[in-house]
Amino acid sequence: MRHFDHIDIAHRKRLFFRQPRPFSRHDDPEVLAVALGATLYCPATRPSLADDIVKAARKGVASMVVCLEDAIADADVAEAEANAVAALRRLHDGWAGPGEDSPGDPRGLRDADIPLLFVRVRAAEQIGDLVDRLGPAADLVSGFVLPKFTAAAGGAFLDALEDTAARTGLRLLAMPVIESREAIHRETRADMLQDVARLLAKHRERVLAVRLGAADLSAAYGLRRPPDLTIYDIRPVADVISDVVNILGRADGTGYVVTGPVWEYFSAGERMFKPQLRHSPFERQRAVPLRERLITSDLDGLIREVHLDKANGLIGKTVIHPSHVAAVHALSVVTHEEYCDAADILRVTGGGAMASAYANKMNEAKPHRAWAERLMRRARVFGVAAEGVTFVELLEAAVGR
Question: Span of the secretion signal (predicted)?
């Protein structure tokens, strides 16, 4: 699969200085963690789950979570498990296999037709049980999302994942979710995150990324952010994000990719504040109608929040609607200016400072190196925009599918 693959080749050549590179579910986890992009959550109870997965992939979704936890009622767990197993088996029956195409078979699905798939479980024992029930269809599962993750509860999940992987020969990756009350409460947070860091270090090869459960974190104080504010305006949750990045997202080789918390709005309501998208960039690109559509769908708040995610060291985002994907992915493309800065920094050994190629900032080889390395990993899977190409043009191309 490849981000922006739906765009006409000639148009894509005009948009990108360096094209996004293909990736597959078998790639190095370091690549996949960045390639996740907008991860779409879907309840496992959906009657058309198999078709929904394929439709999502064809709308640009590269990673998807089939949820057996908070997205479904407690009484529906058995039904949801059965539905998820049946859906993934159906997908596997129509799958051409890794790296293969079957253009003559109308049922044939390519790798690009199925996103990276994860299952969010609510109990450790579900991991082995679901893999056994899936049989060969477990090949489609890249890993499991581990909810309410703490050092005390998380060990059982990771042990179950290790045991199942060893028993089946599958590569199963973990995405623990920081969303417990121990994380939100100030007096327990630091010790809890340090304990989690020590536990994850023991299973490092299994940990794909660390996710943030903003809904649960907010719920501890009876809070819910409105669509015209970002999660960074909700100070108790913003403090958690800061500490998670501080302890679990370090750039010294001990950290992990930390993904942005869920954006949960997809329809407009009455607005209290002005739209968060400036008019001028859209006017310059003659894309004012696009700006109006984004505002009407409350996506201007999402765009603002993704900017803040990136500024705070988060990569990718949890979303609950396919309409969110284009904005997250367009903002994930590396700008030409960023790429030039990173390339200049990585060419230097021994430190020192230099003016940027755009002559508008100072690049320091040592302090900015970790930033440059991270940026180049994002450039690999999301590409580098051509000189002069803006987020507006990328977004317009992405939503014009």
Answer: none
